[in-house]
Each structure stands twice: as C-alpha cells, then as structure tokens.
UniProtKB/TrEMBL annotation:
It holds the Pfam family HLH. The keyword DNA-binding does not apply. It comes from the Eukaryota. InterPro entries: bHLH_dom, HLH_DNA-bd_sf, MASH1/Ascl1a-like. This is Transcription factor bHLH168. Transmembrane segments: none annotated. The gene is BHLH168_3. One of its GO terms (biological process) is regulation of transcription by RNA polymerase II. The keyword Nucleus applies. It is found in: Nucleus. Residues 48-75 form a coiled coil.
C-alpha cells in the first residue's frame, strides 16, 4: 500500500518537471528572438523586461513606417500635382546605443546634409551610417549616430530643436 500512496506524488513531480522544462524551452526561444542586450541575462524577469521593451520598439517602428508610407503615397500625388507642398519631417529614435535620425524633405530645401551632420557633431555625436533616397519630389535621409561619450550621452530634445531650426 505505501507504494500506491507515492504514485500520485511521483506523477505530480513528473508533471511539474515537464512543465518547468516546457517553460525553460519557451524562455529559450524568447531569448533567441529578441536582440542581445548588454549585461547579465540570467534572470527571467530581465529577459521578460527586454522582450517587452523590444515589442514596444517594434510597435514604434511600425508606426514610423506607416507614417513614411503615407508620406510616400502623398509624394506620389505631389508628383501628379494633386496635393500641395509638404513641410519637412524630422524624427529622432533611440535604438539603444545608436540613435536614428530620419529627415524627409523636398528637393529645393535651404539646407545641406553637411549642415545636419555638423549639428550632430556639435552635439557630441559620432555618425555611424548615412543613407538617402529620392522618391518623386522628396528626399529621405536616414542617419545613424551615437554619443561620442556613452556616459554623457546626447540630449535629444536639444538636438531635435536645433535640427528643426536648421530645416524649417
């Protein structure tokens, strides 16, 4: 009879062990899907916080891409002469150690890319990558940059204001 009493406990232990292995497998898959962040990844709590932050960044990226698509669709209409002129767009995004600056302007603007990069350098930024494309009557600039000194960082609100003053 003592064996019969232990059987349900053994079943519960096996079920719990299987549940823990299943959860460990799920967390492992989650860790594989999110970008690697510096620091220890030992804590499941930290992993979940990183996953939440990553999902929020992806949602922001989706919104920015939707806006960009709307602008491109508007640009198509501009080329046909259907809609009026549009003012430049400046957006800054913090991607962790790198910041992304997106500028959308017309072809006949009163500033040069060199002036924008000078503003970044004056704000203690190091330019990592620059790309641009022209669609219709619009130029799309994407500039990736980081702080020269990571401990000090970059004051993005001040940078945003300086860029708006330059562009508008």
């Amino acid at each position: 009879m003592p064996r019969g009493n232990n059987l349900p406990k053994l079943d519960r232990n096996a079920l719990e062990r299987n549940r823990r292995m299943y959860m460990k497998d799920l967390f492992s898959k989650l860790a594989y899907l999110i970008p690697i962040q510096p620091g220890p990844r030992s804590s499941l709590h930290a992993l979940l916080n990183q996953a939440i932050a990553h999902v929020k960044e992806l949602q922001e990226r989706i919104e920015m891409l939707k806006q960009r698509r709307q602008l491109l669709e508007g640009t198509h209409h501009d080329a046909a002469g259907i809609s009026g002129s549009m003012s430049p767009v400046v957006s800054l995004r913090d991607l962790g150690f790198i910041l992304e600056l997106c500028l959308i302007t017309g072809l006949n603007e009163n500033f040069t890319l060199h002036q924008v990069i000078n503003v970044l350098l004056e704000e203690a930024a190091e330019v990592v990558d620059v790309s641009y494309s022209t669609v219709g009557h619009r130029i799309f600039y994407t500039i990736y940059f980081r702080a020269v000194c990571s401990r000090i960082g970059i004051e993005t609100s001040r940078l945003h204001e300086r860029l708006k003053e330059l562009i508008f």
